Amino acid sequence: MYSYATCFQDVRSPFLQLSDLQEGRYMFQLTVTDSRDQQDSDTVSVTVLPANKAPVAITGPDRQLLLPLNSITLNGSDSTDDQAIISYQWDLIRYHGPPGLKIKDANKAVAIATGLRSGNYKFRLTVTDQQEETDSAVLTLTIKEGEQNQASINISNMGSVSNSGTANVSFLWVRDEQSPAAGDVLYGSDHEAFLYIANLVEGTYLFQLRVSDIQGRSSMATATVEVRPDPREREEVELELQVGMAQVSQQQKETVVRQLAALLHVLDSDIALKGLHGQSDISTVFRFSVQGPDGTFPGPKLARLLRNQLLREKSDFLLFKVLRVDTVMCLLLCSERGQCDPITKSCSCDPLWMDNPIRRLLDDGESNCDWSVLYVTISCFVTINFLNVNVPD
């Protein structure tokens, strides 16, 4: 069937020209005749489809939302086409506010926008049909602050946050670059309200705490920690024993404490054990001080007493062999001719002075700077000459 408004041209040629076709199905018959008047016919069907209509992108009405807001759904599933939509694309075309927004599934009808902050957003949805016709629509979102106020921080022994739900707050502790490097953060607490840190050394530490909420608001404060030397450290001594740290049981530790108390004629409770640590794979250091009748034993006096007893007279008195006895702090006077090396716990003598080995071996066992290098050299020279003179030929 065809409309009478359809125009035919060249109906007696191999090529038929048609115009003004309308929507519908057309049947045409072609008849061919040769010079002997022999004929043959065939039919052809032509279907005229309606004109393609461009798709229509639909994003829904503009919206105003209040924080807190983790994410928002961008819904373009109401978009239409006379045949089928083959692609969707969401794009952020305008935004005034802090950075951080991300669009998940931006190439699908329904997308998710995250990282929203206070500000104005414009999203464009572009849809494409099978004929590559496109259409776009714009969705405007206005995100405003809720009724909460700016998060504030108060630092004392912890970071406490005012006017914000702690479940939606993140913490970050950062050590100042000029603070001592020593000190280990425990339990990942640099991302918690409480900061736990161990192995601090003497000095001043500065920590900056930054608190942020999910709306992108943040506040900062600084905490100062001053680590002072332990005033009792001068009275503490180190006792190095020949036993690996892993081999020392609780019972053996208590036995050593009782033996020390018996050696020093004090009560077990007068031995204040500060701690144990492994010096090497085969040695363990006991760190302690001793309370006597007249107060705490001075560290140098206690070290000399234990050195004389445990390294000479009673070397087998303790449960384990004693390798070394020293004060925790380097307190050697070095005969006022040198400095005490805090690493080796021995004297580093001034030029022209040297250690007196006789005193170390036969007296108190302390490192010293008693002897003059010049006098020792002269004495050796005189002694050698004297021996040479008195040796008979």
From TrEMBL:
Taxonomy, superkingdom: Eukaryota
Entry's Gene Ontology cellular component terms: cytoplasmic vesicle; plasma membrane
Annotated Gene3D superfamilies: Immunoglobulins
PKD/Chitinase domain mapped to chain residues: 56-146, 148-230
Pfam families in alphabetical order: K319L-like_PKD (PF22352), KIAA0319 (PF23620)
Any GO BP annotation: neuron migration
Cross-referenced InterPro entries: Ig-like_fold, KIAA0319-like, KIAA0319-like_C, PKD/Chitinase_dom, PKD_dom_sf
The protein, known as: Si:ch73-215d9.1
Organism: Sinocyclocheilus grahami
